[in-house]
Structure formats: C-alpha cells, structure tokens
Amino acid sequence: MARIGYHASHEQFTPRDLLDHVRRAEQAGFQAAMCSDHFHPWSDQQGQSGHAWSWLGAAMATTRLPFGVVNAPGARYHPAVVAQAVATLSQMFDGRFWIAVGSGEAINESITGAVWPAKDVRNRRLRECVDVMRALWSGECVTHRGEVVVEEARLYTRPAAMPQVFVAALSEETARWAAPWADGLITISQPHDTLRPIIDAFREHGGEAKPVRLQVKLAYAQTDEAARQGAWEQWRTNVFGEGVPSDLRTPADYEAAACFVRPEDVERKVRVSSDPARQAAWLHEDLQLGFDELQLHNVHREQARFIDDFGARVLPALR
User: Start and end of every Luciferase-like domain (predicted)?
Assistant: First the structure.
C-alpha cells in the first residue's frame, strides 16, 4: 500500500512551526514526511528558509516517520559533507531516512560565488557526487578529482545499510539518464500525460523495479476562492517549467518573472479545491500510475486545517 506523506516547506514556515506541523501530521495519520533544502525562498512573501539538516534531526527525534530531503550536492554543499550528514541521520534513525538529489538551482547554489555551470556540467557533477557519497558510506578512503574534488576523505560514522538515493526529475531526459544509478525516482504533480512519459523513461532504462514517488502540489483552504488566492500569493513564483527558472538567482528575479501570473494561472500547476473528496479523487488517480508514496504539499499557509481535514477525510478514503 502506498504511503501518504506530509511535505514540510522551509520556504514558507519557520522551523519551529514546521516541527509543529509535522508532529500534527503524524497524529493525523500521515505515514511519512519530507522537506525542501533551500538557502533562499522563491519570494519574499514565502519569507523563510531554515536549515533543513538542523531541522531534520529534531523532526526525526520527535516523530516516528520516515523522512526524505531534496538536496543538490556539489556546489553549496560538498558531497563529503552531505555524505556525513546522511550517515549521521541514518545511524541515529536506522532505515527512516532517504535523500533525493538534483542538479540544483542558482537561487540557492550560486551564493558561493562560483560560476553557475550549464545543465550538462551540473548533471555530470551530480553523478560524481553520488559516486563519492556511496564510496564514503561503504567505508572507502576517497580521493576524487573531477567536477568535484575530494582529498583523502573517510567517514568514521557510517550507516548500517546503504542509504537510498533518489533522483529528483522533472523531465523524461533526466529520468532516463538517472534510471541506471538512482535507487528511485521522485517527481512533482503534473498532468498525467506529462507524468507518464517521465515514469516510463525511468522504468524502461534501468528503473523498472525501483520505487517511484510523487510530490503533490495542492491548495486547500476553507473555500475554493481562499485556496486559489492563497496559492497565488505563495506559489505564483513556482509555476514555470524546467529551464530558465534554474538560472534565476534571487527571490526578486522570481517575483519579476511571475509579475503577470494570475490566480487562475496557478491552477495549471497546483490542484486548487476546498473539497476533500475532490482532492482525494485526484490523489487516487495518481496512485493508479504506480507511485509507492505521495508527499502532499499544501502551498496555502493554512496548514492546521489541511492536516486535520485530510487526516479525517482524505487519508481514510485513499486507504
């Protein structure tokens, strides 16, 4: 049976509030959780950006949920540092932690002042980072010189089992490229005629027996209009396709790109409805695609209503 998880958005809420949200989600019946890992939010209205790894230790210590995080090793984070963080969480919370990796976005990764590389270079760097991390988790002393450089690194605190490394993919091309080496795929909700080719590309090129997960973007509030308005206020900077947005460097850049986005436009990327039955029906359709886990991200700021209502009316319907 697929697990239904709660997505903790560091861009929108303080770490203290997110701890309350994830605990409430566990009590409501959510079976898993994951979080973002940003340095900047996408807009000043989102307005937060706590450190994911500090928060994960607290969240995992105060719940029993399995957790994942989306991370871009190789720029802002050296892969040896990411490997150490993953190993530490895995050692403390055996079997409960997984990581999804991606090539990153300039809004977070360019803060170091390094040149922002082209997508093919970022992909090459990402693959090297995954190889480095796995070697470190295996106990090897690693020296590597390529898109990233590692000199005589060795982890002394290692996980009991090899951590799962998912790829975060938004396109068929990325899913196909990562299928042979990733332990699983995570993508975001899109029309099913867009999602199916991504899933098929992953399964047909090396990922046929591997888990596939979906992060669902939805807006839920007391009324449809409140949900739509809240989605526009919080998420209009996030409705673009793959490509140009990965090169934007500041929240102001994203806000400028979204200046003509209307509330109704956001519904192309976010499922807006105040009806739990309608939300449950959408999620049921997702499960028919074969996802083993859905991570629900209510982009609206009203989290308590969402958690409680979905716990009472949506999660039981899906089970």
Answer: 4-291
Written as tens digits, the pLDDT of the chain (319 aa) is 899 999 999 999 999 999 999 999 999 999 999 999 999 999 999 999 999 999 999 999 999 999 999 999 999 999 999 999 999 999 999 999 999 999 999 999 999 999 999 999 999 999 999 999 999 999 999 999 999 999 999 999 999 999 999 999 999 999 999 999 999 999 999 999 999 999 999 999 999 999 999 999 999 999 999 999 999 999 999 988 665 678 899 999 999 999 999 999 999 999 999 999 999 999 999 999 999 999 999 999 999 999 999 999 999 999 8
200 belongs to a structural domain: no
- Tokens representing 259 are 């200046």
Instruction: Identify the bridge partners of residue 101 per DSSP, sorted by sequence position.
Output: 71, 167
Q: Closest Cα to residue 161, out of 69, 64, 213, 87?
A: 87
Active-site position among 38, 40, 297, 300: 38
Q: What residue type is assigned to position 107 of the chain?
A: I
- Count: domains in the chain: 1
Q: Contact, 266 vs 232, CB < 8 A?
A: yes
Residue linked to tokens 């000043």: 44
User: For residue 107, what are the contacts with CB-CB under 8 A and spacing of at least 6?
Assistant: 38, 39, 40, 42, 248, 249, 250, 251, 253, 254
Q: Is residue 161 part of a domain?
A: no
- Name residue 105's amino acid: E
Q: Is 105 a catalytic residue?
A: yes
Q: Is residue 149 part of a domain?
A: no
Q: Which one from 11, 26, 105, 293 is the annotated catalytic residue?
A: 105
Q: What domain range is 12 assigned to?
A: 1-63+217-319
Structure tokens at 209: 């027996």
Q: How far apart are CA 270 and CA 255, in angstroms?
A: 18
Does the residue 72 lie in any domain?
A: no
**Residue 225 designated active-site:** no
CATH of the domain at 292: 3.20.20.30
